[in-house]
Amino acid sequence: MSTIIVNLDKVTYHHGPHLVLNEISWEMQAGQKIGLVGPNGAGKSTLLRLITGELTPDDGFIFRHKKIIMGYLAQEPQLDTTKTVWEETIGANPAIQRVEAEMRHLEAQMADPAVYNDTAALNRVLAAHARAQEAFEQHDGYSYENHVQQALQTVGFAEKDFELPVRVLSGGQQKMVGLAKLLALKPDLLLLDEPDNHLDLAGKTHLEHFIQTFPGTVIIVSHDRYLLDEVAQFIVEVEAHKIALYQGNYSAYATGKQLRLLRQQQLYEAQQKEISRIEAAIARFEYWASIVIDERHIRQARSRQKMLERMDKIEKPVLEHETMGLELNGWRGSNKVLDIVDLDKVFESNDKRQTANVASTEEPVNGISNVVLLGLNLRIWHGERVGLIGENGTGKSVLFRCILGQEEPTNGIIKIGPSVQIGYYAQQHETLDPNRTLIEEIWEAKSMSEHAAVNFLRRFLFPYERTRDKVATLSGGERSRLQLAKLMLSGANFLLLDEPTNNLDLPSCEVLEQALEEFEGTVLVISHDRYFLDRIVERIVELEEGALVAYNGDYTYYAEKKEKAISH
User: DSSP string spanning 324-383?
Assistant: First the structure.
């Protein structure tokens, strides 16, 4: 039997007056790989913080195995950007650094003539040094640097990257520094809150391999369904203040949840019929008792009333939750939507714009450090769904800006069909003005009354009281839904989508996928969401060393072709 490392027993937690989790019971065992899913705001991060002890439950108990070492990676790890990768990671265990500093201080005292010429003083310093050395050995201090090096290499850093300043790293790379710091502590349980955000496809593959081979327990919050299919042995869903445990990966959970809800609906309906039958019998006995004043009828009515009270009521299942009402209609337009011929993009050495979109650690292309796109060719026809992939920093967003006319190509031709109207979804939500209200953003997309704008925003899950808030106050997921709302109003027939699923919860991802499947138009999408790519695109184009390589299939087809090419 596996060791129980953490056990939650009827845990309840409120955030102010609001109930977040209600009587949660959950037993975690050594070695399990668990995916934690649920809508944004359901309480997933709160649950992780309760497990770590950062938060205290209002009611219930949390048992933690006394020898367990936990590592918690928050959505936004707190790193010192003035340090290098090595300096930040080596500081993961401050106890070792304190003891080592004490040892160095005591060794300096031993070299002081005032100490080594005084036998009593020297003996005191030697005894203190022996105690410090023993503590250092208990913390495994002599092998700590080697362990930190292994931790950094495990999460994907080469030795040449150790001296990079943290400030030049991408968001995904900073997440991996945070993970390396946890590994340096040799944890038994890893709690990872969306560690895959901002990772490119290579980074996600590396993260999958790490989780699969990690000897301890992992609980991971992620919206990446492909990743959850690859690593999860169990799925725990947080919804409506409760949790439900499913055995298997994400696909097994999706099927299992639907079957559970249908079975619950059947049981609920059967129980409601039984309740109606008992209530009718109670009414009959009470009526007869009122006519003939028969004690027997009164006892029978009471007996059935007690039967009702003792009955374990089955809750009516919610078969369909409210989701955003996204519809992308589009229209036919030109047959040849986009034609790019021999496109080059070279940034001047003093052009600061490249640092925002091209990784500072990017290798030069053909020896020219500022070449981003080189002899690029791409043709897209009406109705195609094309996925644009490539490592972070290869220039995918630069290509989008060239297509949109926001960036002037150095050489080459970009032709947009004459009957093509482009709709753009920006990864960093640049299409939104943080100083506008939500209603003003809708008015910017399409003229309508205030009442109509409010009703339209409610279709995208914005309550009435939020519609006059500033965009700056919105979460990442809320900004994503607002961008999609504006995209719907644009009437575009060619969609350029830059990481559209990054901040969406799983139900919203599924709504977006359904809308794109029904869209009468053309799609070019940058995405690291492999599940999304498998469902939506029919052609993959990979940006590599400034040029595009085409694969006529979905992500799985692309991955198989790449694997075969590597093996040969």
Answer: ------B----SEEEEEEEEEEE--TT-TTHHHHS-TTPPPBTTBTTEEEEEEEEEEETT
Read off the tokens for 351. Answer: 């052009």
- Residue holding tokens 């027939």? 493
State the pTM of this model: 0.74
What is the SS3 assignment for 531? helix
Do 399 and 505 share a domain, yes or no?
A: yes
Where does the pLDDT of residue 236 fall: very low under 50, low under 70, confident under 90, or very high at 90 and above?
very high
Count of the separate structural domains present in the chain? 4
CATH number, domain at 416?
3.40.50.300
Clarify whether residues 134 and 61 are in a common domain. no
In the chain, the amino acid numbered 449 is S
- Whether residues 414 and 501 share a domain: the answer is yes
φ and ψ of 430, to 5 deg: -65, -15
On whether both 61 and 16 belong to a single domain, the answer is yes
Among candidate residues 19, 340, 124, 105, the one with its CA nearest the CA of residue 11: 19
Query: What is the C-alpha end-to-end distance of the chain, expressed in Å?
Result: 44
Query: Predicted confidence band at 91 (pLDDT cuts at 50, 70, 90)?
Result: confident
Minimal CA–CA distance to 520: which of 333, 299, 355? 333
Mean of the per-residue pLDDT values of the chain: 87
Using alpha carbons, select from 455, 450, 512, 458 the residue that is nearest to residue 480: 512
Sequence letter at residue 476: G
pLDDT tops 90 at residue 23: yes
Residue 417 sits in the same domain as residue 501: yes
Residue 336: what pLDDT?
94
Q: How does pLDDT run across 346-393, given as a tens digit for each residue?
A: 886 555 444 434 433 334 444 444 778 888 999 999 999 999 998 877
Domain identity same for 398 and 514: yes
Q: What is the chain's Cα-based Rg? A: 30
Q: Verify that 303 and 359 share a domain, yes or no.
A: no
Best CA proximity match to 242, nearest among 264, 227, 226: 264
Q: Which residues contact 393 (CB under 8 A, 6 or more apart)?
A: 170, 358, 359, 361, 362
CA distance 110 to 202: 52
Who's near 397: CB < 8 A, 6+ residues apart? Answer: 357, 427, 498, 526
pLDDT recorded at residue 353: 44
Q: 3-class SS at 286? A: helix
CA distance 165 to 168: 6
